[in-house]
Write a sequence for this structure.
């Protein structure tokens, strides 16, 4: 895996069936640009039949099937090297002929391409011009990129595949540095089952040094086949933001500054509990990092942390860091090459909520340091299960204040013993802090503001009270998830422009499904059902402006004020109405439909045990 993935272009005179690029290659003429798909292509007509980026983006788990992967891998592994003398199209036919689905064929191509020993391939005489081996040789000579060859192969079997250009945080990347030309790379997005997925065959191809430094073995990395876009964005930043395949794209500034999370982080099922930056600063010498772990796997995982000074002239002794657990020994047998001592991390299990990985480091001197966290599964017994990077951080320790704090604490302890007026680190102090944090979480939940809730949860975890406040943290996280869902539903209506809403109002005789959606919406917003039975009355309500406009009423809507009988009546009005039908009739009504059904679902969850009224009140 690395970042020396050149931006060379494909020769124009090759009979490629279907090509797509997010950039315009310098040596391929006649490409047309699709604004909807944000790509240059040699066959614009085919793009009309497929979704654009952002419409259907998928995770690996959505479409992958183990039995299909096994079959595709078996086919790719069994390919005889003599077949490389065949023309590329005939070779591809031999590779995929017994595979039925696009997923299986794409998987076979990925597996075959990433296990090729390309550095052993030599130019040979062949009766076939531009045979398969010739294309592999171009990879070695940097006349073709892995992404381009993968795209060519997919295009030959009519699987939509885009070559994406951008920046990557590969082997040449140093945490926090500015991204430059040396970090440029290419990768792919491939359409499987109408879902756009991300692939990086260059990072998926592995070279492993054998017993001697000149002996190379070839393997592959499955992680970079259909990688989750939310994980991929930590290492790959496309020039065209749509091809991030995220619900909400991030900026280059955020990509450069966000935590440097590695592949092993996601393989272990870890998650970031806050928007941690890759470069940290501390004004008192203390650094605290907290990550979430998979509660079903955490007991079988082990972690270590290495800290070292970035400046080579600094020397430190083993007292420079404060260990975070009672065991000062290390699993590393030889630390002579590590200029800074190994720091064991503390894994704290909160059985009521979730597991957290807590790392606390106290520096003795100001300066710049690197923190490297590694981890692995305990029980997995194979060559790949060695400690590998989880995350890397740079820390700038501006000054040290903890000696001063220690003196102050000692003074307070003496005062407490002599006058019984002050106390420090007592049980009462801990209870006071927990109660204060509990009240902070409660106030944040009352405010219904996501940023306040997230800050309250971070404070509770950072202060090492995740176990004591497990129930409160769990409720707060549920509230955060709920508020984010409501915010997303509300945003769909708020993004409707006035012209779209005016189109709904302009109907003289509205389609039945549109009428139902608007009636159900007005009912949730507090209008009497009798007001909504006549379309002219409904038109008047749609036409109101200011605080009485439908968009403003949706914005100010309080889900907690919605009674279950009103929600269930709205559900009855919508009975039999399908989103596809509404969407095909009116984009504006579709926005209101999503909001209404979302509010009804929230109300049903809240009043799960309540049944609708059967008599008039």
């Amino acid at each position: 895996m690395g970042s020396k993935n050149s931006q060379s272009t494909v020769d124009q005179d090759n009979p490629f069936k279907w090509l797509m690029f997010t950039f315009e290659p310098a040596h391929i003429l006649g490409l047309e640009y699709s604004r909807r798909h944000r790509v240059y292509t040699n066959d614009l007509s085919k793009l009309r039949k497929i979704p654009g980026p952002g419409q259907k983006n998928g995770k690996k788990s959505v479409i992958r099937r183990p039995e299909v992967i096994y079959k595709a891998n078996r086919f790719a592994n069994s390919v005889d090297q003599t077949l490389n003398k065949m023309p590329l199209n005939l070779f591809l036919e031999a590779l995929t002929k017994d595979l039925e689905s696009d997923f299986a064929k794409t998987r076979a191509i990925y597996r075959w391409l990433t296990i090729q020993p390309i550095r052993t391939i030599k130019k040979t005489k062949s009766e076939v011009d531009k045979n398969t081996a010739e294309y592999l040789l171009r990879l070695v000579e940097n006349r073709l990129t892995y992404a381009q060859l993968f795209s060519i192969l997919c295009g030959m079997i009519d699987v939509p595949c885009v070559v994406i250009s951008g920046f990557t945080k590969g082997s040449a990347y140093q945490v926090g540095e500015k991204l430059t030309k040396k970090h440029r790379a290419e990768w792919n997005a491939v359409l499987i089952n109408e879902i756009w997925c991300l692939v990086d065959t260059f990072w998926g191809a592995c070279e492993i040094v054998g017993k001697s430094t000149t002996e190379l073995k070839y393997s592959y990395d499955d992680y970079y086949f259909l990688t989750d876009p939310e994980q991929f964005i930590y290492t790959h930043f496309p020039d065209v933001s749509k091809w991030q395949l995220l619900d909400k794209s991030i900026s280059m500034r955020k990509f450069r500054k966000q935590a440097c999370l590695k592949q092993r982080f996601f393989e272990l099922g870890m998650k970031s509990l806050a928007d941690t930056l890759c470069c940290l600063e501390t004004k008192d010498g203390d650094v605290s990092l907290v990550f979430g772990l998979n509660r079903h796997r955490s007991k079988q995982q082990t972690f270590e942390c290495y800290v070292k000074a970035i400046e080579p002239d600094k020397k430190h002794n083993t007292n420079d860091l404060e260990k975070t657990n009672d065991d000062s020994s290390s699993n590393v047998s030889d630390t002579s090459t590590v200029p800074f001592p190994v720091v064991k991390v503390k894994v704290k299990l909160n059985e009521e909520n979730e597991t957290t990985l807590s790392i606390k480091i106290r520096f003795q001197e100001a300066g710049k340091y690197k923190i490297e966290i590694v981890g692995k599964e305990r029980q997995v017994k194979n060559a790949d299960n060695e400690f590998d990077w989880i995350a890397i951080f740079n820390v700038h320790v501006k000054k040290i204040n903890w000696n001063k704090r220690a003196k102050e604490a000692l003074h307070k302890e003496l005062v407490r013993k002599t006058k019984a007026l002050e106390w420090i680190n007592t049980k009462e102090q801990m209870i006071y802090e927990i109660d204060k944090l509990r009240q902070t979480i409660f106030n944040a939940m009352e405010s219904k503001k996501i940023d306040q809730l997230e800050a309250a949860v971070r404070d509770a975890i950072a202060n090492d009270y995740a176990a004591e406040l497990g129930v409160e943290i769990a409720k707060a996280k549920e509230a955060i998830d709920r508020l984010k869902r409501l915010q997303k539903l509300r945003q769909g209506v708020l993004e409707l422009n006035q012209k779209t809403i005016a189109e709904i109002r302009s109907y003289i005789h509205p389609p039945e499904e549109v009428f139902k959606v608007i009636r159900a919406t007005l009912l949730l917003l507090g209008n009497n059902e009798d007001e909504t039975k006549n379309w002219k009355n409904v038109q008047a309500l749609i036409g109101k402006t200011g605080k009485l406009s439908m968009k403003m009423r949706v914005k100010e809507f309080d889900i907690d004020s919605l009674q279950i009988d009103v929600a269930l009546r709205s559900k009855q009005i919508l009975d039999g109405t399908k989103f596809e039908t509404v969407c095909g009739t009116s984009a504006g009504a579709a926005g209101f439909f999503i909001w209404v059904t979302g509010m009804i679902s929230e109300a049903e969850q809240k009043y799960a045990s309540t049944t609708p009224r059967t008599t008039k009140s």
